[in-house]
Amino acid sequence: MTPRLFIDGAAGTTGLEIRERLAGRDDLALITLDEAQRKDAAARRDALNAADVVILCLPDDAAREAITLIDNPNTRVIDASTAHRVAADWTYGMAELAPGRQAAIAGARFVSNPGCYPTGFLALVAPLVRAGLVPADWPLSVNAVSGYSGGGKAMIAEFEDGSEATAFRGYGLGLAHKHVPEMQRHGGLAHPPIFMPAVARTYRGMVVEVPLPLHALPGRPGRAAIEAVLSEAYADTPLVTVAPGDASLVRVEENAGTDRLTLRVCGHDDQVRLIATLDNLGKGAAGAAVQNLNIMAGLDPLAGLKL
Fold this sequence. Notes:
Elements: E1 4-8, H1 13-22, E2 29-31, H2 41-50, E3 53-56, H3 60-69, E4 76-79, E5 91-92, H4 101-107, E6 110-112, H5 116-131, E7 141-147, H6 152-160, E8 168-170, H7 180-187, E9 194-200, E10 206-212, H8 223-233, E11 240-242, E12 261-267, E13 272-278, H9 282-296
Parallel strand pairs: 1-2, 1-3, 3-4, 4-6, 5-6, 7-9, 11-12
Antiparallel strand pairs: 7-10, 8-9, 10-13, 12-13
Helix pairs in contact: 1-9, 5-7, 5-8
């Protein structure tokens, strides 16, 4: 039987990106609501309960409210909001995060889609913590810059109507960004990392960077040891690549328009810069949601993705 899918919030940026990846596929049946029904609670309830899998592309409070509208035990949910990313009864939907994670997603009823910034951070840090090269209580920091589409329709309008006349905008200066608990929890960290996000005047794309002073780490691992752990962790993951660390520059748009994630270890045996590039709307949002959908529905995990 063809799995039935409902995207709640299909008119938003992430929802539209998901629809684009599903175009032309005949292995899924899409439940849709017309414009008049999109905000009608009864119509949404019917669609949520008629679906085999629901993808929530909603603000946090609306995502929580949508869960209360599901009154049958069969509908499975992928939540693209921040609402459930550290919830104990939700499976974190980053298939590459650790061995066995894809199988956990396949069997889960509730899956939280990772955030864009945490996807890059966790891909870089989690294997190193797991391998013991970076202690769980190490004081980590993470610098990151995203295309402005990550801020949704309001931010897109600011950058495109000329009211935001800047090339680079740092934010989250109070060090309480909502992605930090997700980074700490799924990175296996004892302390929250210092997170320094920014937005650049480019529509899509992302660079996430974690500096590591290797000379100060216990055991003094060299650059090659760090790169070897990452290469082994992602050896069988078609969407994640560990590229050579001898790049002379890295562009925020490197993986824009794709669902790929590229990792690099740049520097030398005393200091390295761990760098991830991805599309904030791709592997950082819609691409990850479609990947999780495929896994949960028992389909090719890469179906519809932009490789």
